[in-house]
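Sample intake sheet
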Amino acid sequence: MRNHYIVLAAVLSASVAACVPANSSSTATPVAGTPGVPSTAAAPEPVPPATQPTTAPTAAPAVSSAAPAAAAGVPADQSNPPGIQPLTDAEAQEAELKCTRLGRAIEKEVKAARKAGKSPYQAVLEALKNPPSVPGMDVPRCAELMRRDVIASQALNIESEAKNNLKAISVGLATATQRTPPEFCPSAPPVPPSLDQVRNGPWQSQPTSWDAPGWKCTGFNLRGAPQYFQYELKTDPATQTWEVIARGYPVAGQPATELYVRGTAVNGKIQPSSQVMRR
């Protein structure tokens, strides 16, 4: 999967990049509400709930202590969440060569939206709803390319929260097996309990949200931090298998996506997983 963000960078570089600090990320510690930022884009925020379409609620799967069932998956870094169409190489080249002037033309609207408290992504998307006429340019075509690029960048940026936290939880599982005596952490229920709680933006956990023995065993919690994904832990001591799952809505109004890391303990020890999968 290729990520371009060329047009987004052109629009944001002059108008908002200087006033929005880049976020740092880590695969060894929990990171919530601070998705990793594409190298050419300023730190985004999801579109506020009021602007997002709603769909029927999705119930959270029940926690099971059974071994994680085999499921076909694809690497998350080589696949897309539902609802985005990243630019192809040809489209990215087209946007870079033909659409830069539209970015400059909407710069004033983007600055005004940022001053009004809009996120960089939301500011650009709102400016593209009624773009100005630019002589010699196919404005509708350029606006559509830019819109797709912004949505894809935002979605993959939001997903970085889940990727970082899945890896952090797997580190916690591995650490537990290194203790004296070693612990193979039990399953832990979804947090938040309902997937619908993260449908329209970030959710904030309560002090007791991560009190289940499984979560305490991993040492992982996001108390007080905004999170865009629901997290669940499934383990089976009998087969020494484990799976950590993250479910969320990177694209407003689109179906949820599910990311996961999984593995099998070897001689009672867990190796942290670096491969995040999607199904």
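Comment: The chain is about 30% helix and 15% strand. Residues 1-6, 13-70 have pLDDT under 50 and may be disordered.
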